[in-house]
Amino acid sequence: MNTRIRILLISLVIVCTTLVLLWGGEATNNFSSKIIGKTVSSIAGNSTNAKKAFKDSVSENGEMSSTVLGPYTFSQDYVFPSFTIYLILDDAGEQLAHLEPFLTLPFSYTVAVIPFLPASKDTVQVLAQNNIPYIIHMPMESSIATTHYQAQIMSDDTPTVITDKLRSAIDFFSQSVPTGISHDQPRASYVAFSSGFSLPFPQAIGFNNHTGSAVSKRIEAMSVVLRFLQSRKLLYLDSKTTPDTVVPRIASDYDIPIVVRDVFLDNSTKIADIEFQLERALIIGLKHGSVRVIGHVTKPETAQVLAKWHKEILKRGGRFETLKRVYSDFYANMQ
Predict the structure, then answer these.
(1) Residue 130, Cβ neighbours under 10 Å: how many?
(2) pLDDT of residue 145
(3) Best CA proximity match to 185, nearest among 134, 127, 106, 114
(4) Looking at the predicted structure, is the pLDDT value of residue 149 above 90?
(5) Which of 9-18, 120-129, 153-162 has the lowest mean pLDDT?
(6) Are 305 and 275 in contact (CB under 8 A)?
(7) pLDDT at position 194, please?
(8) CB-based burial of residue 13 (10 Å sphere; 0-12 exposed, 13-18 middle, 19+ buried)?
(9) Rounded CA separation 116/139 (Å)
């Protein structure tokens, strides 16, 4: 190989390496550990405070610190730009005990409850005691998973069948039945009493999909779902279990609040992995002013991470809200 070609190849490698470092970004659910140069500016937007927040979250060589969330040192007069975190905890309803680690968290969140499970109704009663709003975590057919749930929406269901299944889920939570949950129990308590009594169920503020990658990419099926929710004045959270979801594309056709998930916190139950996804959520929230995050009540590690980093999140501008805020603001503006 002559000298001229060798020099040309070396120059090409240098240029490519530089571009990768300057323009590194976000994959579907994995955030680049290099947050430097152009990437800092594009993620943080035009806010000087936001840019400083990101630069202070990164070491001098551009690597995220080994403890991803900090804490970091700022001047006493430094003020972070505030942003909203909508935290949704999926997969409630199998066991009442799943709620226990989350009920002590000192901030707001929404719980998604799967209908027709052994503890679905008692779960909703405990949530009502603690003023925690819930949505119906509607089972939908997956392209991968083989687990089947009662009233699960299938990709080949007719519009009538889909509507009947959605209605049955609402009716399931609308029935007042004897329950063992006492209204006198304090927050974080889920002790059941054998005597029991009958209580009215609070209404769900909306739905989201449990799995559903096979259904979410079908315009016909999702149009039926959103049309039904519009008739009931409910909200829809697209869990975005497939990148091919059609919900964002057809959302403007329906007068309902539609929210799309940004981050899954706990696909992995390793503490370090959950912390890393939480850091991604903070980055997205700081850039856009809000972020929608899904965790799972079946994973107590998530509660552990959230409890550990709650104060740091507040310091960095994060404010937790429930989806009831989105729901209420949307329908108030329609009046």
Answers:
(1) 16
(2) 84
(3) 127
(4) yes
(5) 9-18
(6) yes
(7) 27
(8) exposed
(9) 10
Nearest Cα residue to 66 out of 113, 25, 33, 103:
33
Distance, CA of 78 to CA of 47 (rounded, Å) = 13
What is the length of the chain?
335
Question: What is the distance, to the nearest Å, from the Cα of residue 116 to the centroid of all Cα atoms in its chain?
Answer: 23
Q: How many CA atoms lie within 13 A of 111 on its CB side?
A: 28
Tell me the residue type at 123: T
- What's the Cα-to-Cα distance from 159 to each of 117, 174, 229, rounded to whole Å? 24, 23, 13
Nearest CA-CA partner of 291 in 263, 322, 268:
263
Prior bond to 300 cis, omega within 30?
no
Residue with tokens 């009442």: 96
pLDDT of residue 70: 57
CB hemisphere CA count around 39 (13 angstroms): 22
23, 13 in Cβ contact below 8 A? no
DSSP state of 81: P
pLDDT in tens, 193-225: 223 434 556 899 999 999 999 999 999 999 999
Taking all residues of the chain, what is their mean pLDDT, rounded to a whole number?
79
Is the pTM above the cut of 0.90? no
| pLDDT tens-digit series, residues 95-141 | 999 999 999 999 999 999 999 999 999 999 999 999 999 999 999 99
Phi, psi values for residue 290, rounded to 5°: -160, 160
User: Would residue 91 be called left, alpha or beta, if left means φ above 0 and alpha means ψ between -120 and 50 degrees?
Assistant: left
Lookup result for tokens 């974080």 = 188
**Sequence-separated (6 or more) residues with CB below 8 Å from residue 41:** 51
Q: Is 154 exposed, middle or buried (0-12, 13-18, 19+ CB in 10 A)?
A: middle
Cα 264 to the center of its chain, rounded Å: 6
Confidence at 10, pLDDT banded by 50, 70, 90? low
What is d(CA 113, CA 210) in angstroms, rounded to the nearest whole number?
10
Cα gap 184→238, rounded to integer Å:
35
